[in-house]
Amino acid sequence: MKVNLAPIAIAALAACLLPSCETVDKDAPARAAMAAAIAAEPRGDFYIGRRMHKEDYKMWGWVREPGMPWKTARLVMMNEQKTLAPDRAGGKLGTDNNHEYRLRGRFSGDTVYEPASDRFYPEFILESYELLSANPPLIYTVKRQEDPKVRIIQPPPY
Predict the structure, then answer these.
(1) CA-based radius of gyration for the chain
(2) Cα gap 146→139, rounded to integer Å
(3) How does DSSP classify residue 136?
(4) DSSP string of 23-52?
(5) Cβ–Cβ contacts within 10 Å for residue 117, how many?
(6) CA dist., res. 68 & res. 42, Å (int)
(7) What's the pTM value of the predicted model, to 2 decimals?
(8) Are 64 and 48 spatial neighbours (Cβ–Cβ below 8 Å)?
(9) Alpha carbons 65 and 103: distance in angstroms, whole number
(10) How far is CA 1 from the centre of its chain?
(11) What is the C-alpha to C-alpha distance for residues 128 and 130, in angstroms, rounded to an integer?
């Protein structure tokens, strides 16, 4: 029996010479650095918050426990009866979009209805805050989510 090896050789050569269909994740090093920084965060009686200002919505942003990845964060409604949120305290709503804070306070256990998104969000009672970064790394898969005019409210996947 005679086997024609030409088609096999051509296929092998093509596999070596043609570019791979696999995509290169250019953000992987930055995400790995962010994951390492989060893992090294000190633990304590506080939370980490990422402000997500949206012109059409009234939720405050994402809140997670220290040392936990952003994919565990909860999108919250901020109870400001004890302390005003940073942007409201400064008198300029939304000026701290995408800023990262150390938040002191607690989850009340209640949920608050936000009519524009037609959803319920956990209530976070803010007691104090400290700015950690005005330019933190991206936590979303779509950078446009940081834009206050864009109505994307997908949770951070990392």
Answers:
(1) 23
(2) 9
(3) P
(4) PP-TTHHHHHHHHHHHHTSPPSS-EEEEE-
(5) 16
(6) 11
(7) 0.81
(8) yes
(9) 10
(10) 62
(11) 7
